[in-house]
User: What shape does this take?
Amino acid sequence: QDADLESHTDVLIVGAGPAGLMVAYWMAVYGVRARIIDKRGTKVFTGQADGLRPRTLELFDSMGFQHRVIHEGHVAVEANFWVPDENGKLTRQGPHCSPKINESNHHNMLLTQGRIERFVIDAIREYSDLEVERGIIAESFGYDENLENDLDAYPIMVKLRTLSDEEANPAHLITSTNGSGRQMANGQGRGSLLPDDWDELIQKSRHRKTRTETVKAKFIIGCDGAHSWTRKQVNIPLEGSVTDHIWGVIDIVPLSNFPDMRRLGTITHSSGTILVIPRERNLVRLYVPVQIVNNTSDTRFDRAAITLEMIKARVRNIMSPYTFDFQICDWWTAYQIGQRVAPSFNKGSRIYLAGDAVHTHSPKVGLGMNMSMQDGFNIGWKVAMVAIGAANPAILETYTPERHPLAEMLLEFDRLWSGEFTETNEDGVSNPDKAERMVDVVEKFMDFADGLKAYYPAKSRRNSTCFCTQFDSWGANPPLQAEGNSRWTTRLFESDGLFRIIILAGDVRVEEQKKRVETLGRLLAGMDKTKISPLHRYVHIPGYKDQIRVVTIHSAPWKEVEFFDFPEILRPFDPVMGWGYDDIWCDGFCTWDPHCQGKGYEKWGVDRNRGRCWFFGQTNIFGWAGELEELDDMTAYLDGVLVKMPTPEL
Ligand code: FAD
Assistant: This one.
């Protein structure tokens, strides 16, 4: 055995699934000294999650790879519910489409988790050489609480072990054959929804000649799935229950005469309901109720007893009289539904948990990957900014209060939605209310699931560092003043590490309003020595001259106001890049973009004449809002969030 190595890192991320990769993205953006490890020898390639909600797509858009999802993924906005009529004949109810379909330019999409992981990994590479270290398992943990409040100290100690190829890539995780000789991935060997194999790997690796390393870290973020090793080290339980329903999931290329085989929907029969999910590459995912176990004492089921043939037989039974078969099975697994959540997503101020590590539920609501990525996004930028000394550590206290209530909502949604699938009607009598009830459940949770609203708690902005407040996260798309381009406002909030002040400048044709904007401009430029400008006041982030970018959206018709009418601080000049043309926008009508109707102010509830001022954090959600004259108030708020430079450049 090689001698133990010892090393230091500021942030250690355990697990490189969707949550861990999102955290790593922020480490890359802010240039944090970080490491991300995963016990698996490879990323996911097939199976697992596939549903992408608009809110997640909005984040991808801000990270710059939404176009790749659109190119490869499958849009699913309409659902059909097939239920037996009074004669027991399967009939289509629908299509049902979201009543809020036009609220956004993003729609629900389906694409395998493996591709999403690829896109995030590529986005990380755009910023840094941070790479996932694979085939490495975290296996022992120490924490010195006395060092918790010393930001220069490394209170966390984790022992890592490099696994052999065989351990990191167990054969059963990769392929088996489906009887026709084709290889396919079988997800039964690992799982967040199934008992995982990490402790078995630890046992095995102890007997191998592999390298070990002790890493000392300032922060640890456990993104290591439902059987989270990190969560167990800090004794945070998962609370909730496991139900007695066993489900099969298959990703197949169907051979069937069922008319809606490539449409999103459900098929209900006397003994249960199948969920049909069309996917990329002619694949279709089916969630299939396989059996109900008698769980009086043991809550685990024997997953080895579930076979692909068994799942196929259930599909045939439920879809009858339609035919069903396949030659290609890309991936399949079986799981038991459980709804569980951790009471806290952090332990003190140095240890955080994200994703399946803190909430598990059935995959049928299509939110597992979404919630996990949103957790990772939320804690990622906060820890990264604190680690580089640019943000007040108190912002870390907002993580659990912001994300935990959403996990509770997720579980409630899942309980109701899963109930619709497991309910059986043994007599085979038709249930005309079934489709209506399913639509009701979806609509009840739509704002939450699709991210049409942010539910982060609003707090007093003066006295608290709470960074977010409730707000419709959807933007409108104003055209660019100087170029005539049109863009959704959510795209204006790129996840590039900068914060944004959004000045809704109002109708600047009116002299009085123009003066208000000019006064604000002088203030921001630091020309009014009696006031403090938030610009150039806080610690810079690497690669940028500043930490805050100012974006202006006025409400006058673009032809009646010129770009150069605005104060220079709002359209700054760079000797190389020229004027800040994409800093001035107009909430006006755009002839070629039907979404661009000049109604943004109305949507945001802002007076078109007087405007308003907002401060946005990294979540596309504003943390402060006020009048154009209230810059001092905004600065006071920011002083609680960001770290001031030793000598402010006023
Ligand atoms: P994960 O994706 O589970 O990632 C955790 C990572 O941590 C893994 O890569 C693991 O190798 C690593 N890890 C764990 N312990 C250690 C350790 N000690 N040291 C180093 N690394 C470690 N969702 C759906 O929406 N639909 C589905 O049909 C669906 N099916 C699924 C089937 C399976 C078999 C699994 C596992 C998950 C499924 N999910 C499904 C859930 C979805 O994949 C998760 O919600 C999502 O991946 C959660 O992301 P995460 O990053 O939190 O955790």
